[in-house]
Specification:
Length: 304
């Protein structure tokens, strides 16, 4: 058998980063911006970056947790590009990563003080970030259902939503109710029952879509077609006509996450305060002022 040479190949040396600088220069992309430069002839590579963008954004949104990074990590996030281009494609690639991190850990933390939900009056980029995440969640849900359903199968979705606009001075929606409850939480923090930082760290993962937003998301699906799309209004006999009915409804829905974060000992006090604010409001106890909607979407599984 031929003996293996003890001399390292150029590939081995290059892989170990041992090549001198003058040799590394031999592998650089063509510089400048002339007709034979990398800048003028790298649209293929840019296309690869563009295709990878939604995957990278999704993975960062789902899996990057800066709170659980190694304790030896510095107080900053390092982003490295290990390509060998001359910058034309490096900058967009780096921007994809930094913007995805910014969106996940900055925009999603910008709730107004004392509010449990982002409302349409908040900063546009904040609302856009939440809508983007909602779209990803709906798309993931549809992908999972597509695996379970046969071609031609039907699925009916009932989704709570809001109109594109409403007058908060004379009308209310589900988010309005929840933010009224949020103001009660903030009042209790000001009384010293818990810290305001405790309020700011509370996460209520709800998004109330408009019909237009939801329809746009559903129309992008490769697995389903929209067979029917309607806006439903709850019959008056099911309306929340009293203070007790309002409080009981929302307590049944969100007491779990509230208790988990703030503790069970403050729940009675919280919802008593909530009922006081409901009773003092000229808006919430009139069912005619309720502009909340339910969206019915009937989807059909496409053929594979």
């Amino acid at each position: 058998m031929e003996k293996m040479s003890s001399k390292k190949s150029k590939l081995d040396i290059m892989g170990n980063g041992l090549l001198p600088r003058r040799t590394l220069d031999l592998y650089a992309m063509n510089a400048g911006d002339g007709p034979r430069s990398y800048v003028q002839n790298s649209s293929y590579q840019r296309g690869v970056v563009d295709i990878a963008k939604p995957i990278i954004e999704d993975e960062i949104a789902r899996k990057l947790d800066i709170k659980n990074l190694s304790s030896t990590s510095p107080n900053c996030i390092w982003v490295a590009d290990f390509g060998c281009s001359t910058g034309h494609n490096s900058f967009p690639a780096m921007q994809i990563v930094t913007q995805a991190i910014y969106q996940k850990h900055m925009l999603f933390s910008r709730l107004s003080k004392g509010e449990l939900l982002v409302l349409q009056r908040d900063r546009k980029e904040v609302c856009a970030a939440y809508l983007n995440q909602y779209a990803k969640d709906i798309e993931a849900f549809l992908e999972a259902r597509a695996v379970e359903m046969v071609s031609g199968g039907l699925m009916a979705l009932l989704i709570s939503g809001v109109p594109a606009s409403w007058n908060p001075d004379t009308e209310y929606t589900l988010p309005s109710d929840i933010n009224l409850l949020g103001s009660c939480v903030m009042d209790m923090a000001k009384k010293g029952r818990f810290s305001e930082a405790k309020v700011d760290s509370f996460n209520l993962p709800l998004y109330f879509t408009t019909p237009e937003q939801l329809k746009t998301i559903l129309e992008r699906s490769y697995s389903f077609t929209i067979e029917r799309f309607e806006i439903l209004n709850n019959p008056g006999k099911h309306a929340l006509r009293s203070v007790n009915a309002h409080a009981a409804f929302y307590r049944a829905v969100i007491e779990g996450p509230l208790t988990n974060h703030f503790g069970s000992d403050i729940m009675d006090e919280l919802f008593d305060l909530y009922m006081e604010k409901l009773a003092a409001s000229p808006v919430f106890l009139n069912p005619d002022n309720d502009k909340s909607i339910v969206i019915l979407a009937v989807l059909k599984r496409r053929s594979d």
